[in-house]
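In practice, a research group might receive sequence data for several interacting partners and want a quick structural hypothesis before committing to experiments. The following worked case mirrors that situation: the sequences arrive first, and a predicted assembly follows.
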Amino acid sequence: MSVQEKSKNDTSPAPVLIVQVWRGDKDGAFQTFEVPARANQTVLDVVTEIQRTQDETLSYRFACRVGMCGSCAMVVNERPRWTCRTRVDELEGGPLKLEPLRNLPIVKDLTVDMEPFFNKWRDAHGYFEPGENPPADFAIVEPSSPERQAADEGIECINCGVCYSACDVVSWNEEYLGPAALNRAWTLVNDVRDCGQDARLTAVTGDAGCHSCHSHMSCTEFCPKHLSPTFSIAGLKRATSNKLWRRR
Amino acid sequence: MNPVLYLAQRGTAFVLAFAVTIHLITIIYAVRGGLTAGDILARTHGNRAFLAFYLTFVVAAAIHAPIGLRSVLREWLHWRGRSLDVILALFSVSLVILGVRAAFAVYGA
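A structural hypothesis for the assembly, expressed as tokens:
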């Protein structure tokens, strides 16, 4: 889909991009648009151009446009991606196909309800537990310590939902906590200051928890931050198994 | 799946990896060597090592298979609740009964 800037003397028709966009809710259908193909345009640019010039009722979500907020994630040509960081000319040829993230309720068009996703963060105890009597002084955590390094490997998640959309297990088992929530739980399991580990390990256990992961690694394959939730989930499997031995 | 089922499934998978390999090599060797059913039974009859191997095999399979089947049924048929666990416990017991019966039949006890 490489597009060169047209020279001033070039009278040939401007190249056009065919875009199939999901419209409506889960019972909706694709609507086809044509937008001018431009050099270096991102998928988010395409969606914005459709909304501003052809159909202002098109719903989609974005904020930062530079890969920091994670709110513009969609399924582009069958793969979940950040649309702001996906250039059209990086994609394979043919019509551009845009759908809302999978495994989440569709609000309208390309917008999904993220509430189930964030509820699972809460259910996985994906929040810091300072305990009843937090220490008055700063905790000293060596950057080279194994726990700190394990936390570092998963800490950059920005909650975009790409991994959740890519996860087969979520599509089969809607109770499954999902890669992002479990990855977050793993970073906290490695936080030596946290006082809620027993409850957290219990929360990530069971049929909705880490042991239901099939290690398909779709989350790792598609994560735009190049994190590996699969390895975080493997860490939780080890931690919950170790807890089992410790109890006896 | 809880950690107990997870560890049981992984532990029995480790046992089955060896057991299935030995089982396959043995049957291929026996068939290619031209042994008849009578020849094979003559070798297995009264062989305690054979019996111990296949009893281990049966127990590992009876633990491993229902746990895997449980995940399949939950994910593909959305079967939930106690009925699923009861059915799979019965399935596990059936595997043990059938497997032990077969092992002893070939052992000749």
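Before designing any experiment, note the following. Chain A has two domains: 16-112, 115-130+138-247. DSSP finds nine helices and seven strands in chain A.
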